[in-house]
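Suppose you are handed only these lines of text.
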Amino acid sequence: MMLNQSDPTRPANPGTPNRPSGRRRPDLTLPLPQRDPSLAVPLPLPPPTSSSAGTTPPISSSSVSSTPALSDLDRVRRIGSGSGGTVWMVRHRPTNRIYALKVIYGNHEPSVRLQICREIEILRTADNPFVVRCHAMYDHAGEIQILLEFMDGGSLENRQIRDEPFLADVARQVLAGLAYLHRRKIVHRDIKPSNLLINSRREVKIADFGVGRILAQTMDPCNSSVGTIAYMSPERINTDLNQGAYDGYAGDIWSFGLSVLEFYLGRFPFGDNLGRQGDWASLMVAICYSNPPDAPPTASREFRSFIACCLQKEPARRQTAAQLLQHPFITKSSHSHGPPSSSGSASSAV
Ligand code: ATP
Ligand code: MG
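From them, the structure of the protein bound to adenosine-5'-triphosphate can be written out as follows.
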């Protein structure tokens, strides 16, 4: 995630090898002071549905008193890894609450770390039901760890969703999250199925905010460990298109549309033989020089139109998140829907 403005903290020399970090000024990296954990233990937390409005402060990520200390977190199991780090399921010992802890790989150059911390601070202020809550950030001897809301259904990667009303509900929630971020002038820049998480209440939330992107700036773009360009818009991959102007909001809409179409198809939408793990050059040629993919004739007219409103090659022709929320595909199916595929496997979910 980034603010839609230039990056003053972008490292001047991305090729500089990682250096062991020196001591950091705590006011730069941990603006919310960590509380003495012993203070948090004996006090029972008030029930979240407390009716005594005005007397009991809500439990929220912005409440310093609810910020867990890193030393109170026990790792339960490893959930998964991406290009930027490893995600753990953790339990907060004093409260028994479960969270996800994202541990960012490596010790980064101080300027990179500072930028990561700044962006996470922006994330920490994000307060929306369709955006994964960030509860805390730790700079543990130079290793950055982020405490996140735990989503027990995992990501939507490799899920196939053929049921259009349910797909509309998923799309509506992601759009609501995007509309919130875009209203706050925040561009996500890494919308893709693995960054869309679901829980057992069928709530879908946007995760992962730019950390991978910041790391990517410091790494060779042809290195597969940077992540995939598969969901990037044509004008972002090839800055010669669109005279080099890049509208990050429209870029998010492209990535969103491609992800939703992938849910419907059960495969990456570009080309029959081109997976999202395809090599960089083939992906680039397909995304920049072929026509945008569209929904098949088996899909409803509304869904086909919806996808076409997202996957316009010309960014100015893509609709905004707020406009797409008014699209008939979304507004026509705004009631209860079938369950998602439980298997997480595309083929078994048809
Ligand atoms: P990339 O690094 O290229 O973005 P990724 O999104 O798969 O790939 P991570 O963000 O490190 O990588 O996430 C790894 C996996 O951990 C995800 O696929 C997801 O299933 C899981 N995960 C991430 N955040 C959470 C969370 N808050 N709750 C539950 N599971 C999560
Ligand atoms: Mg991710």
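What can we learn from it? The longest strand covers residues 73-81. The radius of gyration is 21 Å.
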